[in-house]
Structure formats: C-alpha cells, structure tokens
Automatic annotation (TrEMBL):
Natural source organism: Hymenobacter rigui
Gene Ontology molecular-function annotations: ribosomal small subunit binding
GO biological process, one term: maturation of SSU-rRNA
Record family assignment: Belongs to the RbfA family.
Gene, per the UniProt record: rbfA
Name of this protein: Ribosome-binding factor A
GO cellular component, one term: cytosol
Acyltransferase keyword on record: no
The protein's role, per its UniProt record: One of several proteins that assist in the late maturation steps of the functional core of the 30S ribosomal subunit. Associates with free 30S ribosomal subunits (but not with 30S subunits that are part of 70S ribosomes or polysomes). Required for efficient processing of 16S rRNA. May interact with the 5'-terminal helix region of 16S rRNA.
Subunit relationships: Monomer. Binds 30S ribosomal subunits, but not 50S ribosomal subunits or 70S ribosomes.
Keyword Cytoplasm: yes
Length: 150
C-alpha cells in the first residue's frame, strides 16, 4: 500500500508528465501524444513507473513504435519534467515507462462478447410451460407407504 506522500508525488508526476507530453515536447510524438494511465512511485521516491496508453489513430504509429520513441527520449522527458517539478521535489525520480494495453484488451473483449450468439430466452407466457409440467419427471417413491396413501 502506498503512503500519502507516494500518492501525492504520483499524482503530481502524472499531471506534469501529461503537460510535458502535450506542451513541452509535442515534436517528439507525431499525432497524438501518449496518455498517462497510472504512475506508481517507489517508497524512497527515487523511481517512478509510468504506464502509458497509446491511441493509434491515422499515422500515429504502432504501440511498439511509440514505446521505442518514449524510451529513446526518456532523458529529454525527465529534464522537461525537472523544470516543472523542480521547486516541489528535491530529486526528480528516474522514469521507467511501460505500455498499458488495458484499452486494447477491453476492445478485444468487447468484440468477443459482440460475436457471441446467445439465443433469446423463451417467453414465460407461452404454451411450452404447460408442456414442461407434463413432461417433468415424477417424484420417486422413497417408501412403500407413499404408494398406499395415494
């Protein structure tokens, strides 16, 4: 479980990294810049794991291309982040980027569920309910006395 300080630093980093991607370094990311879905900070505040979600629209490139682009420019991203959070944090954490594929997984699962063919349930007021009562198995006779009492 993260401490309050870790949560505050993670929130600060998430907001400022989004600003860095959109305002300070837009030339690094042709098309749409990656979105930041989650930031987790180590207990000593020295390492931040940043989970990026990349939308591939048009000529934005594939996830692998975006991941390589982000990892190649980690130093520039950290320097731009240091300019933004320099007064609030004593040490800017080392950034480790991971691709978050939860949106792609959700789209895949939505497609799988959409392709399922589920027949509709029979209507409750139909005549098949009476047929079911007649064709239902009779109760087994457990004791010989049950037969005599009927």
């Amino acid at each position: 479980m993260e401490s309050k300080r870790q949560q505050k630093v993670a929130s600060l980093l998430q907001q400022d990294l989004a600003a860095v991607f959109q305002r300070d370094l837009p030339h690094l990311f042709p098309g749409l810049p990656p979105g930041i879905s989650l930031v987790r900070v180590s207990p000593d505040l020295g390492v931040a794991r940043v989970y990026l979600s990349v939308l591939t629209v048009g000529n934005n490139g594939s996830n692998a291309e975006q991941e390589a682009l982000v990892k190649d420019n980690t130093k520039a991203i950290r320097q731009a982040l240091a300019k933004r959070v320099g007064k609030q944090l004593r040490i800017v954490p080392e950034l480790v980027f991971f691709m978050d594929d939860s949106a792609a997984y959700a789209a895949h699962m939505d497609k799988v569920f959409g392709d399922l063919h589920i027949p509709p349930a029979p209507a409750e007021g139909s005549s098949s309910a009476a047929d079911d009562a007649e064709s239902a198995p009779k109760r087994p006779k457990l004791f010989a006395d049950d037969e005599e009492s009927n």
